[in-house]
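Hi F.,

I've been meaning to write this up properly since the lab meeting, where we talked about keeping a consistent format for the predictions we share between groups. The idea is simple: the sequence comes first, exactly as it goes in, then the structure tokens exactly as they come out, then a line or two of notes. No screenshots and no reformatting. I'm using this chain as the first example so we have something concrete to point to.
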Amino acid sequence: MTMTRRQFALAGASAAAAIASRSACASQPASDAPGGDAYAPWRDWAAEEPGARHLVHSAVLAANAHDTQPWQFCATSGRIDLFADESRNLGAMDPFRREMHISLGCALENLVLAARAQGFAPRVAVDPGSVKPDAPGAEPRHAATIALGPASPDISPLLAAIPRRHTNRGPYQAERVVSTEVTDQLRAPAGDDDAVGLILLTDSTARADFAAATIAATQAIVGDTTMIADSDAWFRATDAEIEAHRDGPNIRTAGLSPTMRFLASVLPAPSPEKSHRYWLDQTKDVQLATAPLFGLIAVRDLYDREQAIRAGSLWQRLHLQGTLLGLGMQPLNQLPEMVDRERQLGKPPATAKALAALTGDASRLPTFAFRLGWPMRPAPASPRRTLDSVMLPRGCPA
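Output, unedited:
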């Protein structure tokens, strides 16, 4: 869920050069109003007929790491099975598949909301065990089963936010506080769960410490060529690439102003060094500097599958609630990602210690970090794959 670096780099060249070349530009920038097939799932959601396809349609509009959409579904009589699509992993950015399973939890939350509205009583059974794959591979990995028993329709207010929820990576209104009344409404979806909980960093010192630690984590990622390469592999630079892949971050979703988005689309890509520096500066000067509030979702076991999925479900509920309130929300997961990377490389757990200092409780392990506030401009939609591409045929894998 950390933003791809190159999308910022594309906006980093000088405005003067872009203005001089504007009339002669031969490139084809992404349009301001997405109308391509890659965005059709957002437009068509309300028209989908009730049934299993509508439930999956709701699921695929969920938040997910780097817009990898790492899910597959199998619908049979009375149930839907959810699988982790191992072929869509993030490599060194998510070596233990923790973020992949958080993404599955986001999809599961949307599916459950839609199922209840259709008159089902969804019973979710998450496969026990670790998110870490036993062996490298690309086969779908069963994650959960959703049994669909009959019930009276139960339409949550969050349902209406499903097609409106988008990650807002742009600037927020830094001087406009998030009131206690609003934070209370955000705490409500978290409930009273001992294993998976919400931490809002309302204290100014805690917010400053979070920002400083996130900058340090961003610098560490910039210095890790493997992590950056695995992240950048998902970037889609043109409309043609967006339509071909229907996934991944792109210029339109980077939080840039319309002018900067145009400049990014017409200028040659700068060097990787400048690209990574621009991402670091954007994180520091825009995303961290303008956010009035940061939050963490913490678990007791970072690599427990059920807790990871429940953390994703909680983030989805929070984001849907924030959408109804008019908030902008964006994951800032550099810190949890560096925890995984340090563990993978056998390095001292410096980032884990920094996060423990933020929570004040070494048993509460942040698995997800985010910012929220009142946005300066609306967030655009991200591309989505077709339903047929994520729905497995009958005869689900074991």
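Notes:
The chain has 15 helices and eight strands.
Residues 38-161+386-390 form a domain with the NADH Oxidase fold (CATH 3.40.109.30).

If this format works for you, I'll send the rest the same way.

G.
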